[in-house]
Structure formats: structure tokens, C-alpha cells
Amino acid sequence: MAPRWWLLILFLGGSVLQASSQPNSRGFISIDCGLMGEESYVDDETNLLYVSDAGITDTGTPYNISAEYYRPWRSRNVRSLRSFPDGARNCYTLRSLVSGLKYLFRATFLYGNYDGLNKPPTSFDLYIGVNFWTVVNMSWWGSDQDNRAEVEAIVVVPHDLVQVCLVNTGGGTPFISGLELRPLKMSLYPQATAELGLFVRRRQNFGAINETIIRFPDDPYDRIWDTWSDATMWAEMTTTERVNRLDGDYFEAPMAVLQTAITPLNASGSIKFGWDAEPQPNNLSPGYLAVLHFAELQLLDGDALRQFNISLNDESRFPGYTPPGYLNRGYVYNSFPYPRVSSYDFSLNATANTTLPPIINAYEVFSVITTTNVGTEPQDASAAMTIKAKYKVQKNWMGDPCFPKTMTWDSLNCSYATASPPRITSINLSSSGLNGDISSSFGNLKALEYLNLSNNNLTGSIPDSLSQLQSLTDIDLSGNQLNGSIPSGLLKRIQDGSLNLRINGQYGHNKAAERGGNANEPWRS
Ligand SMILES: *[C@@H]1O[C@H](CO)[C@@H](O)[C@H](O)[C@H]1NC(C)=O
Ligand SMILES: *[C@@H]1O[C@H](CO)[C@@H](O)[C@H](O)[C@H]1NC(C)=O
Ligand SMILES: *[C@@H]1O[C@H](CO)[C@@H](O)[C@H](O)[C@H]1NC(C)=O
Ligand SMILES: *[C@@H]1O[C@H](CO)[C@@H](O)[C@H](O)[C@H]1NC(C)=O
Ligand SMILES: *[C@@H]1O[C@H](CO)[C@@H](O)[C@H](O)[C@H]1NC(C)=O
Ligand SMILES: *[C@@H]1O[C@H](CO)[C@@H](O)[C@H](O)[C@H]1NC(C)=O
Ligand SMILES: *[C@@H]1O[C@H](CO)[C@@H](O)[C@H](O)[C@H]1NC(C)=O
Ligand SMILES: *[C@@H]1O[C@H](CO)[C@@H](O)[C@H](O)[C@H]1NC(C)=O
Ligand SMILES: *[C@@H]1O[C@H](CO)[C@@H](O)[C@H](O)[C@H]1NC(C)=O
Ligand SMILES: *[C@@H]1O[C@H](CO)[C@@H](O)[C@H](O)[C@H]1NC(C)=O
Ligand SMILES: *[C@@H]1O[C@H](CO)[C@@H](O)[C@H](O)[C@H]1NC(C)=O
Ligand SMILES: *[C@@H]1O[C@H](CO)[C@@H](O)[C@H](O)[C@H]1NC(C)=O
Q1: Atom 5, ligand 6: which residue's CA is nearest?
Q2: pLDDT in tens, 258-296
Q3: Which residues form the Malectin-like domain (predicted)?
Q4: What mean pLDDT is predicted for residues 390-405?
Q5: I need a labelling partner for 89 at 20 to 30 A (CA). Which of 13, 29, 165, 516 fits?
């Protein structure tokens, strides 16, 4: 026995050392928000490594839920959370993603009276990057007495760095318990494109009797399925046989989901299911997409036929559908949102020729989210985040620097053009308590016109990278402890009159040029 224990301890030790918000070998990122006292753990239920959120946000306060909300069957992820009492927008910054790849995002919320006030927030907004994902309305999930919510979205990420932001809309303090990312195969969920994301409204697994919400260990994408079992409404069918894989499967439903199905109690009856439109404040009539999953679980004899018409709101959508043969999987889906109405009702009605009633194994419903808002030009955004981190700038520097306009970072201005992403054009960090040297990242802000770093405690020399900034016309470095010489590139710009440099109270190209006549001559400010 002893050697086995050693192996286990070594394994856990290794995973702790590797703990960070970096993707694991499957590309999974699993963050337990507000986790303290340890950096990571392997979840008993999923065997996945969960890490603390400490490294990916610099605001908010960690909390544990009240002890009375601990439940043995509940995932450990929800025991702690991070709450954001300050600022309109607070974000997590996820790095090391694969630009252009499709990801499943999942955010989990469990209030659990963490603040002792017994007053969950009514609602706040959730964004992926600069695009609205959903309102988190705790009363939508009010039937869950613990005020638990779980939301998923499928989006193509535009860059290798993506932020997930909580926006306070006046409905109480936003908080979050868990944040998970699962990379998807590009061919999966073809309705999700660079312009359109999918907000998962429901994944319903029919006929599974054991639990209400299930994740399957063999699901390569770790999705969440609700189960729906009601023996008074439907007859339930299950199999323990394997349901065959499908080449070029667009949806890859887990095996267990396809191993259960329902069929009408009355062999001549039909199957009905549906959902109500859930308007969002910024989208009163969202468009919906659905995927219906089928697998034949009954070995049919030669003359048997299972054929049915699939209609939505009494309009025929897929007439004469026959599930692929025994233990094969099939699905139907729409590529463009259904006409916008207040409720959506599918019916599966037997055709005249059928000998067997309809079946269905599962369905998924999505509302579309547009992902066409464009954030700050990525190199600018990345430079601004590096600068923020280096100088520990407080202010409201959260989320995207320039977008939306109403949340532009204090002390900087941006330019907005219709056909291209916003650019950072001016920065005034005068008297902001900056320490250390001048970040070379300023040199990556290629559209910068004005830079004021006066009256700080900056030391070292002026980085040569600043001379790369073709649009820069004014730079104020006075009131610091800089030394070294003015880089020759900058000197040249000063001499040809295209740049004003102020150091130590001297402003204007003439003075500076005189002073820097010999580029190698050291100067002090
Ligand atoms: C939450 O509980 C864990 C384990 O008991 C503890 O280590 C951690 O410090 C607590 N977190 C907070 C914010 O109190
Ligand atoms: C939250 O949901 C409830 C119930 O559907 C609704 O009455 C309320 O208006 C919603 N609040 C917001 C802010 O969307
Ligand atoms: C329900 O759970 C039991 C025990 O874990 C298991 O044996 C059974 O196969 C499950 N049934 C279904 C339909 O998942
Ligand atoms: C089954 O459905 C048919 C047609 O809808 C109906 O006439 C019949 O009474 C139903 N049988 C039962 C047992 O409900
Ligand atoms: C399907 O059958 C139900 C009754 O079982 C009926 O009300 C409905 O109109 C039928 N739908 C279509 C599209 O034929
Ligand atoms: C099924 O759909 C076909 C084609 O739309 C239609 O001709 C037929 O009447 C439908 N059958 C039933 C029972 O609704
Ligand atoms: C129903 O069966 C008849 C006779 O075999 C055939 O002509 C017809 O095409 C079938 N209809 C459907 C929808 O399969
Ligand atoms: C940004 O623009 C506003 C309005 O033009 C101006 O008052 C402010 O000084 C500018 N800030 C910077 C950092 O350039
Ligand atoms: C620059 O920032 C300083 C310190 O915050 C402020 O006093 C000054 O008005 C700002 N200047 C501009 C042009 O925005
Ligand atoms: C300025 O920087 C120097 C050297 O790093 C440091 O000793 C000093 O405390 C700093 N002053 C302020 C006000 O931060
Ligand atoms: C410039 O200052 C840094 C520390 O602030 C020091 O290490 C360096 O030697 C100084 N260089 C010159 C040329 O004075
Ligand atoms: C930089 O900011 C300081 C403080 O607000 C101001 O006095 C100075 O004129 C600014 N420099 C330039 C070049 O605008």
C-alpha cells in the first residue's frame, strides 16, 4: 500500500506546483473564484484541477459561502467566490488562449449568503470581452433556494487574451463562484462564428433518471446537461449498449445522453416540448437556435418504421424524419435563428406510414449573441495592460481600455474609427506615483500622440522604443529622476520639429535639441 500513497502524494504535489490559470493538457481552464488557503485542488467529481483566481484579477474580495449552504453533493467550486463591491466593471483576464478558436465559457454563481446579509443581488451583466453575454438575474434561478446560477456560452475568441467582465448595473454587488473554459473543435457547433456566439439556454437530456444536472466524464467538452424525467408524461427508454460515433459529428453529444430517450405513453401520441423566449434588456427578442438529438435504442424488425414530422409552432420543419438505424446517432438543427416569437413549441408527430411512435434523446437550445463589438486594437490593449500591471495603476483600469466609450480608462483618450478598432491616442499619468523605469510598452502604443509622465518617481533612461511612435507629438517626462542620454531616434524627431519633449521643466524642441546636441552626452533631470 505504501508505494501507492507515495505516488498519489507525488502526483498531487506536482499538480500544485503547476497550478496557474494556464490551460491543462486538454486546454481546460478551471478557476475556483475566491479560493484561499490553497492554490489549487483536484475536484473529486470531475478529476479536474481547479486553481485560484488570484492571478487573473486584481480587484474584488474573496469570500466563502455560509456554512449552512455547504452540501456534500455540490461541487466544491461554489464554496468560495469573489465579490466586486467597487467599480462599474471588474474583469478576469484569461491569457494563453488560442486566437480564433471556439471555446465553451461557463460561469457559476452561488450566493450562499456569503455576506451575511441574506440579500442576493437582483442582477448584473456578464461580458465576454466587449460583447454582452447575459444578465445574471438571480431571481431567474430563484426556484433554487440557494440562488445558484450557471451560464454557458460558445464563442470564437478573437485574440489569445480574453477578459470576462462583471458589470454592476445597479442591481447589487456582482460576484462569481467559478469560471471555466473548454476549447471546442472548430467544426463543432457550426452556428457559432466570429460574428455570432451562442448563449446556452438549455441542454435537456431526456429519460435520465438519476440527477438533475450532469457532467459526463467522457464528454471531451465537459458540458452541463439538465435531466428531465417524468414517467407520467412519457415512456422512457434506456440502453447499456454503446451508441456509435459519427464521423464529422457537429455536436458530439456524450454517449450517456444518447443512451436514454423518451417516447409517448400512447403509441399514437406525439412528443411536445418547448421554451419561452427570455428577453434581455438589450435584446428584447433574441433569436433562437436548436439542436435535436436522436438515436434508435430499439432493435427494429424488417417491416418496422419509426418516422415522424418535426414541427415548430405547428410549422413543419423536418417532415418525415427517421432516426438513423439501431444505435446510430443523428440530429437536426437550424443554422439561422427561428422567427422571433414569445414561445417555441416543438411537436414530433407520427407520420401516416410509421409503425412506431416518435422518440427523442436530447435537445439543446441557444440564443444568439452578437460578437461584433470590437475592443481596443490588441497590441494597444496588451501594452496598456502591461503598463497598468507594472505601475499598479488603480483608477478604473479594468476591462477594455477604450470600449465601450462610457467606460474608457481614466487618464487616457482613444480614437474611434468605424472600420478599425479603437486606438489609444493620449495618456496622462502625471502625478500618479509611478515608480521604476519607463516601461518599454509605451513604445507599443503605435497611435500615441500625447504622453505625460511628469511628476512621478521614474528612474533609469528613456527607452529608445519611444522613437518608434510616429504620431507622438508631445511627451512630458519632467519631475522624475531619469538619467542617461536622449535616444538618438527621439533627438532626430526633436530636431526636425515633429516632437516636443519636456524634461525638468524645459519644453519645446529648441531647448531640448540644444541640450541633446551630442546624443551621447549624459543629462540629469
Ligand atoms: C475559506 O475557507 C478556507 C478553508 O476553510 C480558508 O482556508 C479560507 O481562508 C477561507 N476564505 C475566506 C475568504 O475566508
Ligand atoms: C429578473 O427576473 C425576474 C423574473 O423573471 C424579472 O421579474 C425581473 O424583472 C428581472 N430583473 C432584471 C433586472 O432583469
Ligand atoms: C442511476 O444510478 C445508478 C447507481 O449509480 C446506476 O446503476 C444506474 O445505471 C443509473 N441509471 C441511469 C439511467 O443513469
Ligand atoms: C391514444 O391516442 C388516441 C388518439 O389520440 C386516442 O384516441 C386514445 O384514446 C389514446 N389512448 C389512451 C389510452 O390514452
Ligand atoms: C401534432 O399532433 C398534435 C396532437 O397530438 C396536434 O395537436 C398537432 O396539431 C399536430 N401537429 C402537426 C404539425 O401536425
Ligand atoms: C407530415 O408532413 C408531411 C409533409 O409536410 C405532410 O404531408 C403530412 O401530412 C404530415 N403528417 C402528419 C401526420 O402531420
Ligand atoms: C408512405 O408509404 C407509401 C406506400 O408505400 C409511399 O408511397 C409513400 O411515399 C410513403 N410516404 C412517406 C412519407 O414515406
Ligand atoms: C482627453 O480628452 C478630453 C476632452 O477632449 C480632455 O479634456 C482630456 O484632457 C484628454 N485627456 C488626455 C489624457 O489627453
Ligand atoms: C493630467 O493629470 C493631472 C494629474 O491627474 C491633472 O492634474 C491634469 O489636469 C491632467 N491634464 C490633462 C491635460 O488631462
Ligand atoms: C522614488 O524612488 C526611489 C528609488 O527607487 C525610492 O527610494 C523612493 O522611496 C521613491 N519615492 C517615492 C515617493 O515613491
Ligand atoms: C541611472 O540610474 C540608475 C538607477 O536609477 C543607475 O543604476 C544608473 O547607473 C544610472 N546611470 C547613469 C548613467 O547615471
Ligand atoms: C503634463 O501634466 C502636467 C500636470 O497636469 C501639466 O502641468 C503639464 O503642462 C503637462 N504637460 C504637457 C506637455 O501637456
Answers
A1: 319
A2: 999 999 998 888 999 999 998 877 776 778 999 999 999
A3: 31-368
A4: 92
A5: 29
- SS3 of 512, please? helix
Task: Look up the pTM and report it.
Answer: 0.86
* Mean pLDDT across 435-444: 96
Cα–Cα distance measured from residue 48 to residue 20, given in angstroms and rounded to the nearest whole number: 13
The separation between the first and the last C-alpha atoms of the chain, rounded to the nearest angstrom, is: 69
- Work out the mean pLDDT of the chain and round it to a whole number: 88
Picking from 87, 135, 88, 72, the residue whose alpha carbon sits closest to that of residue 109 is: 135
DSSP reduced 3-state for 429 = coil
Ligand 9 pocket test, pick from 391, 410, 426, 430 with the greatest ligand atom count within 8 Å of Cβ, gives 430
Which residue's CA lies nearest to atom 1 of ligand 7? Answer: 353
**pLDDT tops 60 at residue 517:** no
**What is the whole-number distance in angstroms between the Cα of residue 320 and the centre of ligand 6?**
7
318 Cβ inside 6 Å of ligand 8: no
**Grid cell listed for 62:** 474573496
Domains of the chain: 21-184 (2.60.120.430), 191-373 (2.60.120), 378-524 (3.80.10.10)
Segment 466-499, tens digit of pLDDT: 988 999 999 999 999 998 889 999 999 999 999 9
| Segment 314-334, tens digit of pLDDT | 999 999 999 999 999 999 999
DSSP 91-119: EEEE-S--TT-EEEEEEEEE-TTTTSS--
Nearest-5° Cα angle at 518, 513 to 521: 110
208 pocket-lining for ligand 3 (C-beta < 6 Å) = yes
**Residues whose beta carbon lies within 6 Å of some atom of ligand 2:** 122-123, 135, 137, 139-140, 171
Q: Residue 20 and residue 29: Cα distance in Å, rounded?
A: 9
Classify burial at 334, counting beta carbons within 10 Å of its beta carbon; exposed 0-12, middle 13-18, buried 19 or more.
Answer: middle
Output the nine-digit C-alpha cell for 347: 411537436
Going by C-alpha positions, the residue among 468, 383, 465, 380 that lies closest to residue 420 is: 380
* Cα separation, 168 vs 91, whole angstroms: 11
Q: With a cut of 50, say whether residue 310 has pLDDT above it.
A: yes
CA of 145 to the centre of ligand 8 (A): 49
Residue 523 has pLDDT above 60, yes or no: no
The Cα 62–Cα 53 span in angstroms is: 9
Res 506: pLDDT: 46
Confidence of residue 72 (pLDDT cuts 50, 70, 90): confident
Q: Are strands 343-350 and 308-312 parallel, antiparallel or unpaired?
A: antiparallel
Q: Which of 303, 310, 353, 355 for mutating ligand 7's site (highest number of atoms within 8 Å of CB)?
A: 353
